[in-house]
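User: My instructor asked us to take a sequence, write out its structure as tokens, and then describe one feature of it. I'm not sure where to start. Here is the sequence I was given:
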Amino acid sequence: MAKSPLTNTQIKQAKDVQTLRDGGGLQLRITANGYKRWQLRFTNPYTKKVTEMGLGAYPAVSLAEARKLRESAKELLAQGLNPKEERDTKQRALDESNNNTLEHIASKWFEVKKSKITEGYAKDIWGSLTRHVFPLLGGYPISQLTAPKVIQVLRPLEASGKYDTIKRICQRINELMTYSVNTGVISDNPLSGISKAFSSEKVTNNPHIEPDELPELMNALDIASIKITTRCLIEWQLHTMTRPKEAATAKWQDIDFDNNLWIIPAEIMKTKTEHRIPLTKQMLNLLELLKPLNGERKYLFPSDFKPNQHANTSTANVALKRMGFKGRQTAHGLRGLARTTLGEEGFSHEALEACLSHKVDSL
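Assistant: Let's start with the prediction itself. The structure tokens for your sequence are:
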């Protein structure tokens, strides 16, 4: 005669060391200290041997819940699967997911990243994440990050007008998310479009093209119907990252060929601080090209009509418009083009701000 299923009363009253069976392999074992725990006996579909798996302790797992677990196990067995292995696999995945927090994965990504960039740029990257991301999101499992969560954390930066900071943080978060996808931590990146959720600083006076459009500009400069001095002025401004006035008023006496420096006097600078620019190979080549043309004059880029005066500060702007870049690239915007291009090459925020003769503020 088949044994009757267990009842809650029977389970509560049971005290002696024994095993109570509910049927279908479900049983409750009671130890000498009164501890009661559920177990399920089943035939392993792979080895065909009887196997046991724990289902939890009573009363944390009630009789009704234990029966549900038994039925779920039977469904897996019907599919030829081992319920114990399936459960353990899911638990391992859950544990791994909970341990793979944003900050933990970011530290692994950063170990790879910092070996490819300068120390200053590395400090800038980690500092921005530490200040603006980790305090609220660092402990989140990276698999649970969503675009709304990250966007909400970055909204205060938008309210403060820190658009460049938002842009850099979005780029960095996406880079570490891509690392997570490539290393198998997550299957996809849900944050790929978060930068589009923010306002962007409206700069209409000094637009510039994107770095991938730079070859178009250089090709147009090569074939443009403009004077050599004007062509050199545009290239000089792009290489030196100076303002139109600073470039147009450059004097030969301020070029230190012994130390390969262009020393711009404080009175010329917008910041009213002397600015020293190292002369690269490309800059020196431009100077060699200019020497036969203007070497005996006061200015590197003299006026066409008054050779003893410097070129008009709008000369480069007018040339860029004639070259077809009206509304896309201004002379002052060459600074932004250079900064963006070098930033994508991995140069640090501090170095780029110094090149622009800006004071370096913390993110």
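For the description part of your assignment, you could build on this observation: Strands lie at 18-23, 26-30, 36-43, 50-57, 255-256, 261-264, 275-278. Try explaining in your own words what that tells you about the chain.
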